[in-house]
UniProtKB/TrEMBL annotation:
SMART domains according to UniProt: PYNP_C (SM00941)
Gene Ontology MF term list: 1,4-alpha-oligoglucan phosphorylase activity; thymidine phosphorylase activity
Domain Pyrimidine nucleoside phosphorylase C-terminal: 314-388
Protein name: Thymidine phosphorylase
UniProt function note: Catalyzes the reversible phosphorolysis of thymidine. The produced molecules are then utilized as carbon and energy sources or in the rescue of pyrimidine bases for nucleotide synthesis.
Lineage of producing organism: Eukaryota, Metazoa, Chordata, Craniata, Vertebrata
PROSITE patterns referenced in this protein's UniProt entry, alphabetically: THYMID_PHOSPHORYLASE
Organism: Synaphobranchus kaupii (Kaup's arrowtooth eel)
NCBIfam families, sorted: PRK05820.1, Y_phosphoryl
BP GO annotations: pyrimidine nucleobase metabolic process; pyrimidine nucleoside metabolic process
Swiss-Prot/TrEMBL catalytic activity: thymidine + phosphate = 2-deoxy-alpha-D-ribose 1-phosphate + thymine
Amino acid sequence: MLMAMWLKGMVAEETLALTHEMMLSGEVMSWPKEWTGLVVDKHSTGGVGDKVSIPLAPALAACGCKVPMISGRGLAHTGGTLDKLESIPGYNVYQSVEQMKQFLEDVGCCIVGQTENLVPADKVLYALRDATATVDSLPLITGSIISKKGAESLSALVLDVKYGKAALFKDIFSARKMAQSLVTVGNRLGIRTGAALSRMDNPIGLCIGNSLEVVESLECLKGRGPADLHDLVTSLGGYLLWMSGKAPSMDRGKQEIGRALENGAALQKFQAMLQAQGVSSENAHILCTMDSDYFQVLRRAHSEVELEAQAEGTVLEVNGIIIAEVLHKLGAGRTKAGEPINHSIGAELLVTVGTKVKKGDIWVRVHYETPVLNAELQACLQGALVIVSSDHDHIDDTSLVSEFIHPE
């Protein structure tokens, strides 16, 4: 059946029917009537350094939304959202639906793993897709993503569909096709669904790797994060506030999310979420103070090395997939579900696209343990940095979000 779907494709009605039945294969959540219009979520197709969910969920909660974010680990080169959060000692991703309801009541948001009785059909089908090489089927991807969001009984959903060298979809045309399928089925299931198409060539932010991405997420929550991460969080959050009726326009919604990051309201929500999900009040406080020593709580790798730029000029590109593949070999991600990973492995970029560098300038700091960052892996990493002559005039510093596909 899966091979037939992969070979022949499915029309929209068939994809909708499959998604609907998958959604009904387990528990479908219900929320209090007074939360009508407030329950929202976001899904990303994934990318290098994509830690958007961590600051976004508490920022939305600070703006009055309820965010039951059911996330995953997947087979990402550098771990998924749950792996990042589990680098915080005590953080418990395994929560019951009743506990999630309590978190939404008390805090306004939670970030948890998929429960056993939520869309069990998806777990069966995903394992079979993996075994039959049908993972990349557009209707099957749509069914997998939207069935889980449908079971969350959402009012509004935004999908961040990425394209580029470090994304599943290499060009905007295939990303747009995927986004349209997701938007169509989501809306037909009764969820107000929109999508953002965003570029994924360079890493998001400056940190890649689980513990380091938590640090950068906290910096974003403190109003100090890198500009591209801040822009993605405010753009996706503003879009959700508009779709859920909490803001009269996307721009106004973006301003509201930005205000929650600047005034500390989102940070307070994140601290409360950490404590609700098992982190000690002392550790949550240390992480969320403005002058934190993050590595009082988070584990730091035993070794680090800094690499130098091999030429002078302007940074045209920092190839995210090359960096992710090296970090994966160092133990930051997994090849098979259930494999352990080392949360402390990662890389800090000291340059971004458009930075002018001289030969010998430090451009990346790599944190590693066992296996070591040998000469071969260092040479691979050097291939990620693309430098052009300083008078190059094709540096793309526009917003990562290229376009939106609005609800039908």
